[in-house]
Amino acid sequence: MAIYPGGKSVRINSPRHLTLRHNRRAVATYQRRLLRQSRAASSQDDGDEVDPLPPGSQKLNSYWAPGLEAGQKHVVSVSQTVTASNQALELEAEQDFFVDAPQYSLPDGMVHSTYPPAGYADDHRILPHIVLTDPHLPWERLGSPSSGTNAQLRAKVRLNAAAKDRNRVPWLVMFSFSQDELRLSPDNLVNFFKDTSSGVIKPVVQTPTMTVNMSIEDLWKLSADVTTPVTKDLGPEPMKDSRGDFIFVPSDLFTSLFSTFDINGNRVVPSTPDTSQYKYLSHVRTINGSGMALAGVEDTAVFSIVVGNRAGPLDNVGPTTMTAHLVSIEGVEDMKKFPSGGQRYVALCSLYSWNYTVLPPDTLNVPDAFEHLGQTLDVLRAPEDIIAPLRSSSDKVRQRIGKRMDDGYTLVKYYTQTGEPTIALYRSPLIPTWVSSLDNLTQSSNTGVDLQILDKELGIMDITYSVAWQLGRTMALGDESFVAALGRLRTAIHTPAVRQVKLQTVKEVDDNAVRTRNDVLADLPSMVKSLAAIHLDSRDPNAPLVPAPGQPFFRPGGAKKRWYRRRLEHADTPNLSFLSPSFDAKYTKAAQETARKLAGSKTGDNSLYDETNNPLSSDWMIVLSWLVDRMFLAGIPAHCLISDPTHLQNENLRFFRIDEYYIDALIDGALSLGNQNLVDHDRKAIKDALNEYITHTPEGMDHPIQIPAYGFYLRSDLVTMFPDLRVEVLADEKALKASNENPPSGAPLLRHEIVSDGVMMGLMDRLPGSAQFASLVFTQPAHQQRFAVSRGVDTEQIKVDIRRQYTVDQAIRDADPNTGKIVHQFICKPTGDESKDSLFVWGSRPNAGLNDLRILRLPRFADAQLKELQDGMGTYNDGGMQKPYFKDDASTSALLAMQLNDPVYNLTIDLQPHSKASALADLGGPPRSAPAEVRTLKRLTPARTRTSLALGAGGPAGGSCPAKAEVEDSQPATFQRPASYIPSPTALSTDLAPNLRALRKMRSGPLPPAKDPPAAPPGDPAGPPEYDITVSSNNGTIWNSIVLNKPNLQQDLIFSVIVRQNPSNEYLLVEMDIEIKFGPAASSPGDTKFLMPNYTGPGAIMLRNLRFNILPQLLDDDKGEPVLRLRLLPRAAKGWIDTKSVQELGFLLGLASVNGTDQSNYQVEIASWAIYCSNPDDPKIGPGNTFRVDANPTLVTVWRD
């Protein structure tokens, strides 16, 4: 949802926009301060941008009219004088255009909020209103052409004319109706739309808000019973194709809504509809968005608000459904006359609508709803009435479960890796208590399974941190940009680190063994001086040829004898294996140094990138932002945050602590991607860089990076009613001064969002109940306050209290001794003497006891307010002169909005003396300190695979390879097999690549005897399932045969197994087998055909049905002949599966060697059978409880390409 900021936008598209904006503002202030110091001798203004509104303040405008209104044709004229050769040429051009603006429907995101919310209830005195994100929208078009265009209005303002308008009639008006007032009878629905096109679906049905969607062209085709202000004059020709929602207002009600009423309450019907009264019901509010979930994305937000003028039913004894419509009145004033004669309805365009409920008097109380929230404060866990019986039980197991629930755990359904269902303990990252230090959970994980913790008292596995690890990995896999950036970052760390470690290891053996570019450049001067004497021998000829320490062996002479090096022994060769202990120790430091460089910024001075400066590595910027977002709980699914619905019930406020070990495991899972080494030092290097970022204090700030440690959930209808409910976190300044603590300087709220309808979440880094977080305040937002007709209204009277309004500064109004008192009270009644010149109109006819209108009498209401403020506000002393608190001479929509505003309620929860203060203090743990915690990562030990543990010993401590025999190296030996060598199939099946696994030959176990299935009852067509088996090549072209390529290499075979069965059968499948006999290729047409000579491939995998496993086996059949048996086994703990849930069992057999042929094709039969369970009640699956059903042989066709 876009928020109009009224100037430069400071919106940051991040879940951490509150902290990022706070940090960047602090750094910008610091930089401006340095700039002022550098300009101390100059009087230049640095142009600081100062927010004109402090937090909690608002500014009202009667209207924001754009420069050009929509709907009217505008003409742009251009003139130019071209002079050449002392001759002038006058050029002129004109262009007609229309301003593009919404007319019959609103674009997405235009509506910020409504009150009452859709589907909710409120008092009958409440006036519905709508908040729009575009402050210009109500005045984009002309609601009253007689008042002049926007250009004429602007000219009056520019000339400071005395007759300039302080109000502007909008083209959008808020109306509320009972559904009976808008509901059309079935006959009307037929007759009104009989001539419309097929674009109107017949039979016509009104929506729940009593609208009908149609095009403008169809609107003009309605019967003569309906009139409309929408004419061809409202837009260009293509307007007729536009569609909109239309309501049908009874003609008499329409006349009352656009007429005036005299002092006796009689309706005065003008010659044409009067729209001027609605200029008091739309205004603009500019607010400070701090502490608000939606508007808080900007420092300043500007909204337009359209208020209704019609109250709810005054005599209802039960809930009554009302419909609110944002109606276009464009063209209403241009109607030549009011509906008359046969025109029974007026069709008005509704741009937005919703239903709400009006309750009888004294059934809803917003202050009580606020107060109830303070009474429900607690920590986030199961309710006390659930835990208390377990806690007080004499059974130790129940006590243990109660203790676990006290800690925020819940029982969840869990499937083990082998498929068995069981239960496990799970706790979300939002916990109700402090977690002690887990010293045994400091190593990174490669699978997450090692993070499971067994509760020995219950015998139940705690999968909390294992789920967190898998969740982090899954979330990372779902973010393509993060995975790509992480892979590039790992490469950027690994490549320089390996190069540095190898260079360092080699130089430890011989410092001159490798010459870097810098070494060569540094030695250039001395090398040039020595070139002239390179052929001379200045040494003593009798001296032994011993090279200088650290220098290569040099012997002068010719080119062949100039350099001499002995061949290195094996013991002299440094071990550059990644698994050698010396390499491993060096690489850790090198990776950390490289990661630290990549985590730097472009500002130099070895500064760290902290999101207030420019990054040195864009990949690190992406990875850092993603990881810190996860520490702010961004993107974590709701069911992982709230593990049980009972933890957050309706109308409750719950506080929690964020489990740092859960977040640590989540980040560890995310960073586990992209690792290709046995020891993951790169992950540790990234974590070290992240920890440095967390503990880093950016330049210009007095606190390190803020990471949330605590938070709250608020679930209430108040959140739905006021989505921008303002939240303030207040400190106890007296307690801070007493303990010599500085007030918190960081952002009070680190994350503030509406996570679901009626659910608000707030995160902070301060312990609830501490001196830095002593109270929590909820306040109605300035732009989402309620509007009400008066303090009280019913069928007998209305009481209007004129509240005090000021046109002076805040300091002066605070000194007013009458602050909070009313200026005057109007009491008006529908009949009698007190009905004269009333502020409220009950019915369309006076003294008739009607309550059919219930509208404000405008402009009488606004004028009465202005007069009472002018006469009753009083004066104050300003330097010996008496000046009025209120000085204005015009009644405006902004002034009336302040009067119609219902009282603003706020809830202040003092956390320190609260009954749940001890539970809140437990969130911080001992010593329950108030300062912000340093939330660094704890899992810093690199993850190691089992293979790395076995291969960790890489040689001597010096890092060199172990010496072989003390013999002088000769020429390296070359090994070559004879040309006639042909590897046997056995050798090929064992000497496979590292990623392939050879199949072992097994002995065949006894199979159940083949027999007929149990006889079906007479008349029952159910029989054993049939399996249609097709074998084909994995080439995507031919699906029912195998195609041999040239040359005939190994290929993947697709086994398609389709299960055909009667829906009424009850066979329980234990196993389905396919058997392929081995044998050589046929040399003549009469030889026996075999599909494969053997199988040495990697095995088989299931294609779609992952509820089965495919197990290939090499064995000898009953006749002692070698076969390949492919066993399809269900993944079920009970050992069988109901065949009614099985449709197909397709799988892929990898790298099969298919016998070639000299003919165009040949066919081979393969056998198959199925094994079923006889007695499902017998838990033992084996002989005596199974029977076998043989299938017809499958014919496989092999073609030669």
Q: What's the mean pLDDT score? A: 85
Under CATH, the topology of the domain at 1000-1200 is which?
Immunoglobulin-like
Shape: globular
Determine the number of helices (DSSP H or I, runs of at least 4 residues): 26
Spans of at least 5 consecutive residues with low confidence? 45-50, 948-972, 1016-1020
Proportion of β residues? 15-25%
CATH architecture of the domain at 1000-1200: Sandwich
Biggest beta sheet attributes: 9 strands, mixed
Any idea of the CATH class of the domain at 1000-1200?
A: Mainly Beta
Total number of beta strands: 51
Approximate helicity band: 10-25%
Give the termini separation: 61 Å
Using the CA coordinates, give the radius of gyration. Answer: 42 Å
- Helix/strand structural class: alpha+beta
Could you characterize the architecture of this molecule?
About 3% of the residues have low confidence. α10 crosses α17, α14 crosses α18 and α22 crosses α23. This protein is α+β, with helices and mostly antiparallel strands and 1201 residues long. A hairpin with a 5-residue loop joins β12 and β13. It has 26 helices and 51 strands. Strands 39, 41, 43, 45, 46, 47, 49, 50 and 51 form a nine-stranded mixed sheet that branches. Strands 5, 8, 9, 10, 11, 16 and 17 form a seven-stranded mixed sheet that branches. Among the domains are: 123 residues, no CATH class; 201 residues, Sandwich (Immunoglobulin-like), CATH 2.60.40.
Spell out the blueprint of helices and strands.
Layout lengths: L16 H22 L19 E4 L11 E12 L2 E12 L12 E5 L5 E2 L3 E2 L1 E4 L17 H10 L12 E7 H4 L3 H7 L19 E4 H4 L6 E2 L15 E8 H7 L2 E2 L5 E2 L13 E7 L11 E8 L12 E9 L16 E14 L7 H10 L2 E2 L4 H8 L4 H11 L3 E6 L5 E6 L3 E2 L21 E3 L4 E3 L1 H14 L2 H30 L7 H15 L27 H4 L18 H18 L19 H14 L6 H4 L10 E7 L1 H12 L9 H15 L14 E6 L1 H5 L4 E5 L2 H6 L12 E6 L2 E6 L10 E5 L7 E2 L3 E2 L4 E6 L6 H5 L7 E7 L11 E2 L13 E2 L3 H13 L2 E4 L2 E4 L8 H8 L5 E5 L6 H5 L24 H5 L34 H6 L10 E2 L23 E8 L8 E3 L6 E10 L7 E10 L21 E4 L5 E9 L5 E9 L6 E2 L8 E6 L8 E13 L12 E5 L3 E7 L1
Parallel strand pairs: 5-17, 10-17, 18-24, 20-23, 39-45, 41-51
Antiparallel strand pairs: 1-14, 2-3, 4-7, 6-30, 7-15, 8-16, 9-11, 11-17, 12-13, 14-15, 16-17, 19-20, 21-24, 22-23, 24-25, 25-28, 26-29, 27-28, 29-38, 31-32, 32-33, 34-35, 36-37, 40-42, 42-48, 43-46, 43-47, 43-49, 44-48, 45-46, 49-50, 49-51
